[in-house]
Design goal:
7-stranded mixed beta sheet, 4-stranded antiparallel beta sheet, 11 strands, about 120 residues
Length: about 120
């Protein structure tokens, strides 16, 4: 059974940084795509960043230039380095991976709160 465990969320002041981690266990194959999404209260879940197994990345417009996604295939772990955080970055951040052709798994989420 595939499980995703996120960590690294917390409370930070505007302008600060946080690094999220998501460890994937139970998958025989390294995920093809690993990514991060977020959901603020009362809003729809929003795309943040994704990274392919080869290292190609894509970012949501609101985080470009501030967030960096990376992965360690030997550890089945994806990271999200978040710099220059803003209050509008406050949300629950979810890790998602795609295994095989299109099987998706989600983590339970980690809260990020940015104070002004």
């Amino acid at each position: 059974q595939v499980q995703l465990v996120e960590s690294g969320g917390g409370l930070v002041q505007a302008g600060g940084s946080l690094r999220l981690s998501c460890v994937v266990s139970g998958s025989y194959f390294s995920p093809n795509v690993m990514g991060w999404y977020r959901q603020a209260p009362g809003k729809q879940r929003e795309f943040v960043a994704i990274i392919s197994r080869s290292g190609s990345t894509d970012y949501g417009d609101s985080v470009k230039g501030r967030f960096t996604i990376s992965r360690d295939n030997t550890k089945n772990t994806v990271y999200l380095q978040m710099n220059s955080l803003k209050p509008e970055d406050t949300a629950v951040y979810f890790c998602k991976v795609v295994v095989g052709v299109s099987i998706e798994y989600w983590g339970q989420g980690t809260q990020v709160t940015v104070s002004s």
